[in-house]
């Protein structure tokens, strides 16, 4: 008999580490009180729980597709909790108060999951099946696949509210899920790298940005052609609708 260990605590929230980081970045005031530090750690634990709830739902959908259609819609997933530095940086950038209440009220991407799918059909079928589950709700949808950004960025962004059950009851918590294809992910990684390359001359940057825009269009064409072949040989659902909020 094979036994699988399922409680693996390695990657869980480390309270002391979080407190130390928060103390370090809030050094220039406003300082967090001990009570706020505790509230922050508790809040991060809830975000982490919400992230696990959604990833499990996605894994279950993926395995159902495997069983029903002999097709894995999800190529892989990445998940992350926003770092203390990015949380505080974002609040400051948006001119919002730096407090635990402000994080809860204003940030919807503290818990984030990126779902990299094989085809565009998979993006829409997985996101629609997840959105239809009646224990969670859809807070916001941005379809940059149907309406790509000016730079060529394509992805489907959905913010879900997920109940996390603690000893105190259900806590509805937002999770930002970015659904994209392998081609979209390939493109976004390079564009992201270019954006953070600040020592490039303007002319070079403009040239690369233009090339990237051309690449986005080419990748979109390739993706469509390959998806058509896949549609012909695989019975997985063919879905093109954007999930709806509310
Ligand atoms: P902020 O979260 O405040 O930035 O605004 P928003 O919630 O309206 O953002 P949006 O949903 O448009 O995008 C959020 C995330 O999508 C970013 O943090 C990136 O991970 C990704 N993203 C958005 N636009 C781009 C882009 O042009 N290039 C790349 N590489 N990633 C992008
Ligand atoms: Mg965002």
Keywords:
246 residues, globular, single chain, binds guanosine-5'-triphosphate, binds magnesium ion, Beta Polymerase, domain 2, 5 strands
SSE topology sketch:
Layout: H1 15-25, H2 34-69, E1 74-81, H3 84-93, H4 100-106, E2 111-117, H5 120-131, E3 137-143, E4 156-166, E5 169-181, H6 182-195, H7 202-233
Parallel strand pairs: 2-5
Antiparallel strand pairs: 1-2, 3-4, 4-5
Helix pairs in contact: 6-7
The structure holds guanosine-5'-triphosphate and magnesium ion.
The site of guanosine-5'-triphosphate has 10 residues, from α6.
Overview in brief:
By secondary structure, the protein is α+β, with helices and mostly antiparallel strands. It is 50% helix and 19% strand.
How would you characterize this protein structure?
The protein has 246 residues and is of the alpha+beta class. It has helices spanning 15-25, 34-69, 84-93, 100-106, 120-131, 182-195, 202-233, and strands at 74-81, 111-117, 137-143, 156-166, 169-181. It has a 5-stranded mixed beta sheet with strand order 1-2-5-4-3. The termini are far apart. The mean pLDDT is 93. Bound molecules: guanosine-5'-triphosphate and magnesium ion. Residues 109, 142, 149, 151, 153, 157, 178, 188, 191-192 line the site of guanosine-5'-triphosphate. Guanosine-5'-triphosphate binds at residues 109, 142, 149, 151, 153, 157, 178, 188, 191-192.
